[in-house]
Amino acid sequence: MRRSVSPGVRRGAVRFAVTVVAVLAATGCGGTADTPAAAPSPAASATTDSAVFMVRDPWVKAADKGMTAAFGTLVNNTASDLTITGVSTSVSPMELHEMTMKDGKMVMQPKTGGITIKAGGSHVLEPGGDHLMLMDLSKPVRAGDELTFTLTFADGKTTGFTAVAKPFTGAEESYDPSSGMPMTPGQQMTMSPTP
């Protein structure tokens, strides 16, 4: 026997079904937290930070002991100049260094005032130019090793990056000071080709 349903009840049932389908569609059919409306994950904010400032193509000159340096391109995508005032890594004390002419010789020295990257610009760290100096390795840095560095900005904020060590024979730097004495942080040194 078939029961008769009034048109008002039928319309109410259809509205209820449409409402349920709309709610399920809006909540992703299960209400999981991975919907677009969910809060951003830490990875998303890290990506945003790296889009604002990054170190492009970072690398470290492989060395068994003593001193070596890290290089790359500092990229500032902000609307303000950024100044790096310090750098650190677990395998060595570090300084920001520059190369400059003094008394007819190219000398390496600490970079007074830090390294400034202009708003929307970049600054190259390279052999024979500005670089991040590892002053006294506590262990060898072999080709293929990955080192983690922390840069400190003038406003006290920090950011990290990882660089791969590779052999480098171009420029043939010698980090031995001309006096023949061991190098101490802050001391000036000449940079000359090794024999």
Topology:
Blueprint lengths: L6 H20 L15 H11 E9 L6 E9 L5 E8 L4 E9 L2 E6 L4 E3 L4 E4 L5 E4 L11 E8 L4 E9 L22 E2 L5
Parallel strand pairs: 1-10
Antiparallel strand pairs: 1-2, 2-7, 2-8, 3-6, 3-9, 4-5, 4-8, 5-11, 9-10
Q: What features would you highlight for this structure?
A:
195 residues, alpha+beta, 11 strands
Describe the protein in words.
The protein is of the alpha+beta class and 195 residues long. 16% of the residues lie in helices and 36% in strands. The chain contains two helices and eleven strands; from the N terminus they run H-H-E-E-E-E-E-E-E-E-E-E-E. A hairpin with a 4-residue loop joins strand 9 (146-153) and strand 10 (158-166). The longest helix has 20 residues, at 7-26. It is globular, with a radius of gyration of 29 Å.
Order of helices and strands: HHEEEEEEEEEEE
User: What's the rounded overall pLDDT mean?
Assistant: 74
Percent strand equals 35-45%
The biggest beta sheet is recorded as: 11 strands, mixed
Supply the number of helical segments: 2
Structural class: alpha+beta
- Uncertain stretches of 5 or more adjacent residues: 9-48, 175-195
Distance between the termini: 107 Å
Which bin fits the share of residues in helices? 10-25%
Rg, nearest Å: 29 Å
Total beta strands: 11
What overall geometry do the principal axes of the alpha carbons give?
A: globular
